[in-house]
Design brief:
The protein is 27% helix and 20% strand. By secondary structure, it is an alpha/beta fold.
């Protein structure tokens, strides 16, 4: 995978054919691989603090994508949040257990464990628990929608975060309907893509043909209700993996639940799935999200 046109000081390819990673050498104040739970080596998070020392920082919590089965808290998904770091936000980037080692909703439980850890350790790292912003891409976009209200899905009590104000949520190309993956064109590329999507479902659910109950459980539309934080949705309108119509469905679902100023649908014209090209990484598209966040800082 090659993403062109990005800042070489923030981005590199460790080896040919590998996923690009976000370079963090220039971040002076960072705390890496902090465990937030003990069940897996993946249950760790990184914290990046701005250079300017302050008592508290608004916080962007970044949740990577990868079909619930691949990718990492320090790969290309971290890159756009560094613009937030540059503008005075602390960034917390989390890993979570991956399929097929675990099935959904264990990924979601890990996100909630990480949020709980942040709520309990915020003071030590100068994190402002009144100004927490969720940022998630693809599978991460699904997870931030589920985590946007901590009572949104039946959740074991021990995973519930405490004393966090989720000020806003940014969801990039989220999956809602996991049977509606891949466009319905008949060509070799789309046939291969739909096979990959079927394997993704098998990893998440244990079957390429999950039950309706499983599909409902992972679909944020099952739970979203009034009281959800302000929401920014970004989605490429030519996304071959998760169709743009899913973002439109999310936007229409949320219109009765949020005032107009608190709900944005940002289509990327000609944009594909996050990570395939530079659209989700360039400042022209990232800055409106950060501006949206800034309007909701208290």
């Amino acid at each position: 995978m090659a993403i062109k046109g990005l800042n070489p000081d923030w981005f590199e390819y460790p080896k040919k054919g590998s996923n690009p990673i976000t370079k963090i050498d220039h971040v002076k104040r960072k705390f890496l691989d902090i465990p937030y739970a003990q069940d897996s080596d993946l249950q760790k998070l990184d914290i990046y603090l701005p250079d300017e020392v302050k008592e508290k920082y608004p916080v962007i919590i970044n949740i990577h994508g990868g079909g619930f089965s691949v990718c990492d808290k320090r790969d290309f998904h971290l890159y756009p949040t560094l613009f937030g770091w540059q503008q005075g936000f602390a960034v917390v980037s989390i890993n979570y257990r991956l399929s097929p080692a675990v099935r959904f909703p264990e990924h979601y439980y890990d996100v909630m464990r990480a949020l709980k850890w942040v709520s309990q350790n915020a003071k030590e790292y100068s994190l402002d628990t009144n100004n927490v912003f969720l940022w998630g891409t693809s599978a991460g976009g699904t997870l931030v929608l589920l985590a946007g209200q901590d009572d949104i899905m039946p959740l074991p009590f021990q995973y519930r975060p405490v004393n966090l104000r989720l000020a806003a949520v940014a969801s990039f190309c989220p999956g809602l309907d996991y049977m509606d993956l891949g466009m319905r064109k008949i060509n070799l590329e789309q046939i291969l893509l739909r096979f990959m999507m079927s394997q993704t479902r098998k990893g998440i659910f244990g079957s390429n043909k999950p039950s309706q109950a499983q599909l409902d459980q992972i679909n944020p539309l099952t739970y979203l209700k009034k009281g959800f934080p302000p929401l920014y949705i970004m989605h490429g309108d030519s996304d071959p993996a998760i169709p743009y119509r899913q973002a439109v469905s999310l936007y229409k679902h949320m219109q009765p639940l949020l005032p107009e100023k608190d709900l944005i649908l940002h289509p990327l014209r000609g944009g594909v799935h996050a990570g395939a090209k530079a659209e989700f990484f360039i400042i022209e598209n990232v800055q409106p999200v950060l501006d949206f966040f800034k309007t909701h800082i208290i």
